[in-house]
Amino acid sequence: MTPAFARPRRIATLLPALLVVLAGCRGPGGCTTEYCGTVVFAATGEPSTLLPVVSTSAVERDVHDQIFLKLAEIGPDGGTFGDSGFVPELARSWEWTDPLTLTFHLDPRARWHDGAPVTAADVAFTFDAYSDSVVGSGDRASLGHITSVAAVDSLTVVFKFRDRYPEMFYDATYHMRILPAHLLRNVPRATWQTAAFGRAPVGSGPYRFVSWTPGQSIELAADSTHFLGRPHLRRLIWRVAGNLNSAVTMVLAGEADAVEVLVTPDNIRRARADTALRLYPYAGSTYTFVRFNLRANGDRSKPHPVFADPEIRRALVLAADRPRMAQTVFGEYAKVPPGPMPQLWSWLWKTTLAPTPLDSAQAARLLHGRRLSFHLIVPSTSPTRVQYAQLLQEQYRRLGIDVVIDQVDNPTLQQQLESGKFDASLESFVTDPTPSSSVPALWGRDGPQNYGHYANDKFDALVRTAAGAPTRGAAQAAWESAFAALAQDPPGVMLYALDNVAAVNRRVADVRIQPDSWWGLVRTWRIPPDQLTERDRAGR
Amino acid sequence: MRAWLLRRVAAGIAIIFAAVSLTFVAIHLAPGEPFLPPDERPMDPAVVARLRRNYGLDRPLPVQYLRYVTQLAHGELGESFSQRRPVAQAIAAAVPNTLLLTITALAIDFTLGIAIGLYQAARARRRSDAALANVTLFFYSLPTFWLALVLQLVFGLWLGWFPTGGSTDPVLHDSLPLFGRVVDRLYHLALPALTLGLVGAGGTARFQRAALLEALGHEYVRTARAKGLAESAVLIRHAWRDALLPVISLAGVALPFLLTGAVLIETVFSWPGLGKLAADAISARDYPLVLGTTLLATCAVVTGSFIADVLTAAADPRVRLTA
Amino acid sequence: MTTATLLALLAIGVWTTAFVSWCRRRPWGEAGRRFFRHPSATGGLVVLVFLATVALCAPLVTPYAPYQQILTLQDQPPTWLHPLGTDFIGRDVWSRLAYGGRISLGVGTLGMLVAVTLGGLVGAAAGYFRGWIDALLMRCVDVGLSIPRIFLVLGAIALWGKLGVAALILLLGLTGWFATSRIVRSEVMSVRERPYTDAVRALGARPWWIIVRHVLPNSAAALIVSAALGIGNMMLLEAGLSFLGAGIQPPHPSWGNMIADGRDQLPTAPWTTLFPGLAIALAVMALNTTGDALRDALDPKTGGK
Fold first, then answer.
1. Quick check: C78 contacting A, CB < 8 Å?
2. What is the pLDDT of residue A3?
């Protein structure tokens, strides 16, 4: 690597300087205090709605996390058992009235951005919306243990549960962003996905919505009277970059201040060499895998000619040199997971479980000299997955397995998965802080996202035990045995779990990143007054 | 003249109609579901089905087609799936950006192209002509998006002279005085316009040179020369006037080039114009938006060739407007 | 880069020079002289013959297989072993470039062949029969020319999903014949009016026979020139499609998908993108000069410029 190529030379340029002078012509820029500062985020995609209950993507979450609050937020240790470590947000306090009844007391200072107070009725309304099949929230399944949410008075709300389990408090608080009942009650729920509210949301969070220019940017402004404390950054702007690479380029070129993931070692190297940036490593919440379709391509009633055979699936796992591939593509910034798990579940990684090692000889024995051929669908928008697909293709070719890579765009990929018209797919999945919801959803017999129709009763039973385990120690042991059962009869090849690294401009201080919800703590970031630039001071 | 005009307009409308119908069928038969979100958290299939119903996508294709055509006849372009606003609004926001880009690019294209062509014709078959011929041919032969990537890398990332993408500064633009906003625009416009302009200028220069050399061979030019006019006067006053005609008609034909070239260039530079809108719409399976952008692009092409014909006629009295 | 590779390249260089100078010496007649009188014709031909030979003999001049991954050597800058560097999964860029030439030049040539055949037939039919056939065909051509080509091709690719090489060639051909058919039509119209066509018709020949035997050969010059210039356009379009992820699928290299693959490494490993781009530019340049020279040679009206 030639350093001249690696590092962008940021020559103090004439035109930006001119712009700054022009901006300054209007007199001294207004803001010079502790509460100035504008941070521009480079967004890898564009949200389609900012109404949390129907939003599905991480980019949407990044933005609506600033606008909406939960009752309480998960703590810095990422614990999901009991209520230890949880930090109050809209709820000032809570108590267990009996083992199945949880009472929250709302913060009386909380206000919607239109001035109306946040009430217990809003919470009850929110639960009703999240569990309504017409709304179709992705979190509906996680709320299945809660039988009712009722307002006692304007600031007291009571949750009743069906049964006792360790993650009751987590389920009651983590999934729901509290919504304003007075603004949404009269909007027909069948139209929420496309409701105007989602393009101009009103919440109770530290930032309020200002503007959205489709295809370009979204702007939020700080609520200077917010009850959780006045946010230090005055303006937040998301610039739509369209893909990861353009987003990173934007940050390296100094056109944006922060990007949540760098992904490739190349990007990390370049960001590290850039004196204007500081890097923040954190645990990744995604894992990437090849999923096998156990039913015939396009016909769910028949077994798949290749993948119905567990020996072949095992051979395909044994034949893949996963550590080598991870090293090639991500350097030290990814691990091969021993099961379907992201690095976010750090407690599960302290395990004796190891990923199935490379064993081409054993793989060849299991194949009995059969020559296989299958199609692998890969999203064309993900360069790293396209790269991985080519690495796998070459490794399998040496064993006489012919992999045809079909690069398709996202709408097609999703449609092929839903309709079962695929052999194998290279997917990434963004998880919650706990395995209890996504593992059964993806790999359980009746899981809604079990597109490959994988069925393993032993595994399902172990997953049920693990999700109900009373302590983390017990849970760890149970998940380990579940993942071991999965490795015996693999539903796919678990390829990598990323370590994430965010890059944020050096002038921003107190940067904290929440692994499960990257920009969740932006309200605590600040730019010290001596670090303020013209860009921070300019504007409204 | 009037008959010609009428016939031209009727043919134009028919062409546009056919193009939109073709696109309608193609995009609706294409695989991919407009309401499935990108690969993160999937949506409940029942919700997807309901959304399809809300937008009438569960109806048979001919019914949908009839509905769309009726809608179009009322001047309605429908509602964009991905932008959640009327297609007309999305397009109206993109058109000024694309026009700014294409017109600037055309200006660079023609000033540079004609100037180089003139210079080359003046020194035909000398070394500088040959060298320039190679340069123009090189630019003419380049994949436009490749040049865009290279310019972005060199001037955007390595030298940091120009922004790598976008059309305005997201932080400062709104708080700048008018003059500052203009400068900011031009600053963001530089690289995409230069890319399109350079590639175009390569072609224009070649065309201009050839047309000039042909004109220089004409009888009246020789007469002018025989009258003892200076070579530059012969070139500019006599030959050029003649050789401008084919170049003008080239401008009409260049319009589709600038629009199609703009799909890739706008994507590379995240320029929020029609090309990027169309590309994004195709990848999101945003049917109404795809149709809307195709409609507009086709209109532009048809109008472009129409204008070229009229201009040619205006510049050359010998051409009569009879189809 | 091994000595064998170097020798093979040298041999191709010698063969190219020999072939082109043989072409120059051949008494092709007036047309041949006019062709080589064009200042860049020789250069263009040399480049074309060289690129085509390298592509055809790719196994001889490449030290590695085009999909061979040397995982310890990703994004290596050019060295003696890898004269054009390696790409993001450790594949030799030079080897991929040589093999990619097969696909890029092949797709361009074959696509143009389809387009010229179709355009020739449609143009000939329209120009010969006139009347409603002409009107119908030419309105179709108007529609085809009015939709920006990249929209048309992207739409079609969305329609059929991923495409094999053959399908891609067909698609490029099917969307690329409109302009050719117009040129041929006007040529045919003028040929049709010539006395000898009337004479043949008077002898009782069938229309198709007249078109194929008499009309087409007379408009061959226009066809050849438009084909030579069109291959370059086909190659550029293929590159654009591959760039959008809709062209040639991996691991097959094409110059277009090499640019697309290298795009994300552009700031750190520019060679993976620069060389295929230059290769396209070089090939298209050579095609354009050859096309120009061919026009001069075959069309005495514009000759000698």
1. no
2. 37
Q: Where are the beta strands (DSSP E) in A214-350?
A: 217-222, 235-240, 258-259, 277-292, 295-296, 299-303, 334-335
The β-bridge relationship of strands A235-240 and A217-222 is antiparallel
Half-sphere exposure of C94 (CA within 13 A, CB side): 22
pTM, entire model = 0.84
**C: neighbours with 3+ CB pairs under 8 Å?**
A, B
Alpha-carbon distance of A370 to B253, in angstroms, equals 57
H or E stretch at A63: helix A58-67
Does A338 score more than 60 pLDDT? yes
For chain B, say whether A18 makes contact (Cβ under 8 Å).
yes
Percent of chain B with pLDDT over 90: 10
ipTM: 0.82
Least confident of A332-346, B18-32, B89-103, C208-222: C208-222
Would an 8 Å CB–CB cutoff place A6 in contact with chain C?
yes
Q: Which residue has the tokens 């919801």?
A: A437
Residue A379's closest chain C neighbor by CA?
A: C245
pLDDT category at B318 given cuts 50, 70, 90 is low
Q: Is A264 on the interface with C (CB under 8 A)?
A: yes
C284 to B141: CB separation less than 8 angstroms, yes or no:
yes
**The two structure tokens encoding residue A199:** 């393009």
A236 in Cβ contact with A39 (< 8 Å):
yes
Q: Is A265 on the interface with B (CB under 8 A)?
A: no
Q: By CA distance, what is A6's nearest residue in C?
A: C268
CB-side exposure of B64: number of CA atoms within 13 Å? Answer: 19
* A323 → chain C, closest CA residue: C71
Q: What are phi and psi of C158, to 5 degrees?
A: -60, -35
Q: Does B47 touch chain C if contact means CB atoms closer than 8 Å?
A: no
CB contact under 8 A, C158 and B30: yes
Would you call C249 and A269 a contact, using CB atoms and an 8 Å cutoff?
Answer: no
CA distance linking residue B7 with residue A426, whole number of Å? 54
Angle between helix axes C178-192 and C220-243 (nearest 10 degrees) is: 170
B145 touches chain C (CB under 8 A): yes
Answer yes or no: do A136 and B280 touch at CB < 8 A: no
pLDDT above 50: residue C105: yes
Judged against a pLDDT cut of 80, whether residue B217 lies above it is answered with no
Q: pLDDT of A223-252, one tens digit each?
A: 989 999 999 999 999 998 878 888 898 899
CB-defined contacts A:C, below 8 A:
69
Size of interface A-B (CB pairs under 8 A): 189
Contact call for residues A136 and B44 (beta carbons, < 8 A) = yes
SS3 A283: strand
- Report whether B207 contacts B245 (CB < 8 A): no
Contact B199, B140 (CB under 8 A): yes
Tracing tokens 């760039």 back to the chain, one arrives at C243
The CA-atom distances, in angstroms, between A329 and each of A280, A332, A386, A441, B177 are 20, 9, 11, 28, 47
Contact list in B for residue C287 (CB cut-off 8 A) is: 141
What is the total residue count of chain B? 323
Q: How confident is the model at residue B260 (pLDDT cuts 50, 70, 90)?
A: low
Q: Strands A277-292, A492-505: parallel, antiparallel or unpaired by DSSP? A: antiparallel
